Amino acid sequence: MADYPLPLMVPEDRVRVAKHLRDASAGSTENNIESRVLHCDGIRLWMAVSWQPLQDDCGNPLGFRASVRDITEKRRLREQLRLHNKHLEQLVQERTARVAELEKHRAKMQQLAALGELAAGVAHEINNPIAGIRNALLLMKRHLPRDIRHYDKFELIDREIDRISGITHHIYQLYRPSQQQPTRFSVRRTVDEVVSLSQPLARKLNVEVVFNLTGKKPCGELESDEVELLEGELKQVLLNLVHIAVQASRAGQTVEVILETRETYLVIDVVDQGQGIAPEHLDHIFDPFFSTKTEKVGQGLGLGLSVKRSLVETMTGSVRVESEINHGTRFTLSLPRPLQDE
Fold first, then answer.
1. Disulfide: which of 78, 116, 198, 244 matches 175 by Cβ 3.0-4.6 Å?
2. 4-50 pLDDT, tens per residue?
3. DSSP state of 13
4. What is the pTM of this model?
5. Which residues have a Cβ under 8 Å from the Cβ of 74 and sit 6 or more positions away?
6. Nearest-angstrom CA–CA distance, 33 and 49
7. Residue in 222, 313, 310, 208 with CA at minimum distance from that of residue 264
8. Does a cis peptide bond (omega within 30 degrees of 0) precede residue 218?
9. For the segment 113-134, what is each residue's pLDDT rounded down to a tens digit?
């Protein structure tokens, strides 16, 4: 066989092996050159070849000698090791990213706790003078005739005092742990009540609010639509999210509240078809004092969503948001059905 051993090689390696044969004939030396051979039963095996030149006593070349080793098992183990290392690298990257995420979350929680403690102290100090201002305003209003100039400004002042009181109340909620105890109630009834409470605003803006129950399962002693949570907190969170969805919608659009009770937790989605949230704002909408409502003075201080997330986390739940510009926004609440005491 003139071209031996090339016919034994796999076709992809024949050119490279032929070059090595020429190099060996020219007097080169190599060790552990790997290539693949075809077995008689058709399978491919790996071999490692080493060669050295042969010379007579006068230094004239006589050819070369070669040794061939079967390294198929070694290659298999090497490939397994490579895949294992790749998997380990992926795990390390995932764990590193997770640790970085947790560290970022921890730093953020520390920052929010410090901010909340400071804000709660400020809110407490504000409440007393606000009460004095309101009492003085009521006394002035009671003893002044209605026909005096700017009498209508009393109502404006009173509304602004209410707004300041609302801000301080939100700040208290952001920091102060809930004093409620979990109670057993029908979450379906609660969502129905929230939809009813949202109707005045929805009618004013010509937006329809609908409620859909997509699935329900019992959970231990709880019926299929029952949960054991902080009902007041849940109602407050839901009403706020529905109001946000209604305000983000255009006339004639629909806001959908979707409830699903699963075996151990419940999921509530509030979905609108409104203008959506800009991608650069999505990571910040739950931050205290962040607001996209900057077009009108006094429209929002940016405490609503941060307070609502704080309330949800008090119940060991989570709130997520997905949004696309001009296609709407989806807020998703996930809460354990029986709130476990920590």
1. 116
2. 888 889 999 999 999 998 898 888 999 999 999 988 888 899 999 99
3. G
4. 0.53
5. 46
6. 5
7. 222
8. no
9. 776 677 777 777 787 788 888 8
